[in-house]
Design brief:
- The chain contains 16 helices and eleven strands.
- By secondary structure, the chain is α/β, with parallel strands linked by helices.
- The protein folds into two domains: about 100 residues, no CATH class; about 240 residues, 3-Layer(aba) Sandwich (Rossmann fold).
- The strands form three sheets. It has a seven-stranded mixed sheet, sandwiched between helices. It has a two-stranded parallel ribbon with strand order 2-4.
- Helix 4 runs parallel beside helix 12 and helix 15 runs antiparallel to helix 16.
Length: about 350
């Protein structure tokens, strides 16, 4: 998602470091195998999945393909749909896909963010058909679903907040005590929902969503492009926004309302949804991105030494692969903020993860 920006920035920054080529090498992921041909049948996680039906979950994606008058293309984020889709499916839930307009919604596919689950989704004829023929949200019967999951993507900032059918579904599921989940820009669906008592759903609720810091780093003029910034909109309607470190996993749980801050929060949010539905999620091998965000979280909370020690422990005690390029991306973010010490520490951690 942000790698294209950071790779370009790195080229103009690495002159600060003696080993510029080394820095660039840390930003490039190791490609031992090509995951692009992955199918659902190749995923051991799905083979261990629950076969009996536990009900249905509705995943909602945006129909918006352009960001306002900016001319910038947008859509739903594939990785935020694909990964949750397979967590829900593996844990016994049938997933239907809906959008405000129905039909085939616009999609954002960032090649550098794609992993085996994402390519499996693209190569899954059942999933592909559901996306291609997404249900018009106005025709959805919320009584059929145990939960709703609002997928992120910047387009959601335009069509989710003002959609009356979306507001009706959220309100009905809330009144029935069912699970409402949303990630990244997906919580835009919740901003304008009012309950029967006239109060906003978000009033006094703990929530997460794409933060102002994250938005403005990627799009400096976001305030003039977007109808509003998501963090601002949630706060305006009474939410307590729990913000984690930028571009790291952060989820909030407030009763049956579950929200995640960004794309790196999808796995945790999807499995928290399964837990809230009353089930223990089936075991799943963590991805390289998850190990990286775990290490970065330790760095933020406990500092460099513990993050280095955690990296070594993971590599020495498992067959895990750590996505060192994600750690290096955070180093470049620090460099762009002129945080030299932090930059060097994160590059050191990335080098250890690569080794």
């Amino acid at each position: 998602m942000i790698k294209k920006i950071l790779l370009g920035a790195a080229l103009s920054i690495v002159c600060v470091f003696a080993a510029g080529a080394w820095v660039i090498s840390l930003l490039l992921p190791d490609q031992a195998t090509d995951p692009s041909a992955t199918t659902p049948g190749d995923l051991a996680y799905l083979e261990r999945g629950i076969t009996q039906s536990r009900g249905k979950i509705l995943a909602v994606v945006t129909s918006t393909d352009v960001m306002g008058d900016s001319g910038k293309t947008t859509g739903y984020e594939l990785t935020e749909l694909s990964r949750a889709y397979y967590v829900f499916s593996a844990n016994g839930f049938t997933v239907d896909i809906a959008s405000p307009q129905g039909g085939e919604p616009p999609v954002v596919i960032d090649d550098e963010d794609m992993g085996e689950f994402d390519f499996a989704f693209l190569n899954d004829p059942v999933a592909a058909a559901k996306v291609r023929h997404s249900l018009p949200i106005a025709e959805v019967n919320p009584e059929e679903y145990a939960a709703v999951y609002f997928v992120g993507g910047k387009g959601a900032m335009w069509d989710f907040p003002e959609s009356q059918p979306i507001q009706n579904i959220v309100r009905e599921l809330h009144d029935d005590g069912k699970v409402i989940a949303a990630v990244c820009h997906g919580p835009a669906a919740l901003v304008n929902v009012k309950l029967g008592n006239g109060e906003y759903l978000l009033k006094d609720k703990k929530v997460s969503g794409f933060t102002n810091e994250e938005e403005l780093f990627l799009i400096a003029d976001a305030r003039s492009i977007f109808p509003f910034l998501l963090e601002d909109g949630m706060r305006e309607h009474g939410a307590t926004v729990e913000t984690g470190p930028a571009y790291l996993e952060q989820i909030s749980r407030d009763g049956t309302l579950l929200t995640g801050q960004n794309p790196w929060s999808v796995w945790a949010l999807a499995e928290a949804t399964i837990e809230e539905l009353g089930y223990q999620p089936i075991p799943r091998k963590k991805t390289g991105d998850e190990y990286s965000t775990q290490i970065l979280g330790t760095f933020e909370q406990d500092g460099y030494r513990k993050a280095r020690a955690q990296t070594a422990f993971i590599l020495d005690n498992s067959d895990a692969v750590i996505n060192h390029s994600l750690i290096a991306m955070h180093a470049i973010i620090a460099a762009m903020k002129m945080e030299v010490g932090r930059t060097l520490q994160l590059l050191s951690i990335a080098a250890g993860a690569k080794a």
